[in-house]
Design brief:
This protein is of the alpha/beta class and 651 residues long. 19% of the residues lie in helices and 33% in strands. It contains eight helices and 46 strands. A hairpin with a 5-residue loop joins strand 13 and strand 14. Helix 6 packs antiparallel against helix 8.
């Protein structure tokens, strides 16, 4: 074969190779849109041929543009398609494009898994504070705008001042600083503390829940850091607190417990006047206490004296012992004041300056720190048919026996009875002192502007302006007293009847084992502010009259409905109405403050039981009532102004 033939053969072979080699073709994609035009999926895929462009991010973008789809390429979906393609796997139905959905307005909120009806604990991350998000429209894959459904102006959520929690500015995490409940008020987040210090700073009270906000158990130890941060140094009452938590878990109900207590100061003893010892039974009226000492306030005895008799002497005050509040600060004890005596009629001081003697015959009176010997009518025996009723215009009565049933004794000063009062009417401008008892059988009445003292009282009606001291037993009596009522000597029991005081009631025992109904109460009344009440009523009447004439609508509505000729007059009336409303608001605020002050004053009053209180007893303070359902030892009942209820604590 010649060289020319060989060359021709090679040309033919090259032409055949060109005709059989594949054409260069880029990879292609076809897309399918969802019905809402918000996403595009790969519906067909043809791989590249020859030297054509293979599947890539750039090719995907180009194919989308060719298809008229305007959405941005979904990077994650695209990378997934590339990976599957490289592995020889199908990429059909892979989403490559997602449209922009509309954004509804969203208020700031706490994102949390916690149940915020339960408490948070110090150091606990209880949620994340999300920012407010304004509304914005979306766009489908053809570039058509989609409006948001909720376009209100979103309200941000911020931390309140003194919120008791912290906010991480970067992460939005919220962390509690105290034990309490998360609250959102006026678009501000705060934690309401559940640890409350009493107004006298002598106790710390808290509310204890079965679980925390993440349904986890907790113990009282979680409070220690909180109390330490509050500056409280007194020890935590773990037994009381843990018992309350246990009960909360058993019952599912929130429990209140006092978890820290201070120590009350022991009052000092003021200087007092002690009667001289009396040897004669006829002049030994009443009973003496330990060491033969008789305190006028506690026992108020008015002995008979004659010229030259030593009446008694002054003792100096005794200092008390300081207490400690929950912050560990010492609380000074009250009392310990010296007694200063003024000498009245027929009394003279002796050279030592603290002992006093009588210069005339009569009854000793000790009132307003003035010691005097005053006129006295003395009976030889009982007040009965032999004496008749006794009614004095001045002075005192000393009965050397009993006042018998049906008889009357009235004296502008004191009535002193050596034995008993039996169903009679006794009225004294000063004190009534009975060495025996008041055996009234539901008849008569004993009234005194001063102190009433006796060994016992049965079925008696007693009204007292100062203090009632019954040593042994008050049984089925009706008692009203402006000062304290006490039954602390011997048995010291109050059972049956109704006993009320405006200050305090104190006894060793109240009620009986058989459940006799016994009512004891503090009846201190709120002093009415007559001037403010009258001013309030007058303003109400004026406001009612104005509203009746012009209507109760708002100012703007009334102005719109007023004829032009009367517009100026109407504006003046509305200004007057506005001033009346402001003044009424101020008066209501003042009256509310006075009511709160009254409730606060009730907190200083109490009913104390030193041994036992029985079922059947009703405790009344501040218009509230507590029924005693089981025997309880050593209790103190007082009014809580914040809760407006009666609370009981152990003595």
């Amino acid at each position: 074969m010649t060289e020319q033939d060989n060359s021709s053969q090679k040309t033919k072979l090259r032409n055949m190779e060109k005709r059989t080699a594949p054409e260069d073709r880029n990879a292609t994609l076809e897309f399918k849109l969802t019905h809402d035009k918000m996403a595009a999926f790969i519906s067909a895929y043809t791989p590249a041929e020859g030297n054509g462009s293979t599947l890539s991010l750039e090719l995907m973008k180009a194919e989308l543009e060719r298809s008229g789809i305007r959405g941005e390429l979904d990077h994650d979906g695209a990378m997934f398609a590339l990976k599957r393609s490289a592995e020889g796997k199908s990429i059909i139905n892979v989403a490559l494009v997602r449209a922009l959905y509309p954004q509804n307005a969203v208020d700031g909120q706490i994102i949390t898994d916690a149940d915020l009806n339960f408490p948070v604990l110090p150091g606990m991350e209880f949620g994340r504070l999300s920012e407010a998000v304004p509304a914005s429209p979306g766009k489908n894959l053809y570039g058509e705008e989609i409006p948001a459904e909720d376009t209100h102006t979103p309200t941000p959520l911020d931390l309140a001042p003194d919120s008791n929690c912290s906010l991480d500015a970067e992460t939005g995490k919220l962390t509690a600083k105290t034990y309490g409940l998360v609250r959102i008020t006026d678009h501000q987040v705060s934690i309401e503390p559940l640890i409350i210090i009493s107004s006298d700073m002598m106790s710390v009270k808290t509310r204890l829940y079965p679980y925390d906000c993440f349904s986890m158990r907790y113990d009282l130890g979680a409070m220690e850091k909180v109390l330490e941060g509050m500056g409280i140094t007194r020890p935590l009452q773990h037994v009381v607190g843990q018992t309350a938590i246990k009960k909360a878990r058993e019952t599912g109900e929130v429990q209140e417990a006092v978890i820290v207590t201070g120590t009350e100061p022991i009052p000092g003893q003021d200087g007092y006047f002690e009667y001289a010892r009396e040897d004669k039974a006829a002049t030994s009226i009443g009973t003496t206490g330990e060491d033969d000492r008789v305190d006028f306030k506690d026992r108020g005895v008015h002995p008979m004296v004659g010229p030259g008799d030593v009446i008694g002497k002054i003792h100096p005050p005794v200092e008390g012992k300081s207490g400690e509040d929950v912050y560990g600060r010492l609380t000074p004890p009250p009392g310990g004041n010296p007694l200063e005596i003024k000498t009245g009629a027929h009394v003279a001081p002796m050279p030592d300056g603290i002992t006093y003697k009588a210069t005339s015959t009569g009854i000793v009176h000790f009132q307003d720190n003035t010691l005097a010997v005053k006129d006295v009518l003395e009976t030889k025996g009982d007040v009965d048919y032999s004496t008749g009723n006794i009614k004095l215009e001045k002075g005192s009565v000393h009965v050397n026996g009993s006042i018998r049933e049906g008889f009357t004794v009235e004296a502008p000063a004191h009535v002193v009875v050596a034995d008993s009062i039996e169903g009679s009417k006794v009225t004294a401008g000063g004190d009534v002192e009975v060495k025996g008892g008041l055996v009234m059988a539901g008849k008569g009445v004993v009234k005194a502007a001063g102190i009433i003292t006796a060994q016992f009282a049965s079925n008696a009606h007693i009204e007292c302006g100062d203090e009632i001291i019954i040593k042994h037993e008050i049984s089925n009596c009706l008692i009203r007293c402006k000062g304290p009522v006490s039954a602390l000597g011997g048995k010291g029991i109050i059972q049956g009847g109704v006993v009320t005081s405006e200050v305090s009631i104190e006894a060793n025992e109240i009620g009986s084992e058989i459940g006799v109904k016994t009512v004891v109460g503090i009846t201190a009344k709120q002093k009415p502010n007559t001037k403010l009440s009258q001013e309030r009523d007058a303003l109400r009447a004026r406001l009612l009259k104005i509203n009746s004439a012009i209507g109760q609508g708002d100012d703007e509505s009334i102005i719109k409905g007023t004829p032009p000729a009367k517009l100026e007059q109407m504006k003046q009336i509305l200004m007057l109405r506005g001033r009346i409303k402001i003044k009424l608001k101020e008066i209501r605020k003042q009256l509310s403050k006075e009511l709160n002050d009254y409730y606060k004053s009730l907190e200083r009053l109490s009913i104390r039981v030193h041994r036992k209180i029985h079922p059947g007893v009703e405790i009344k303070i501040g218009g509230k009532t507590v029924q005693i359902s089981k025997p309880t030892a050593r209790m103190k009942f007082r009014f809580d102004a914040d809760e407006r209820t009666i609370i009981a604590t152990k003595l």
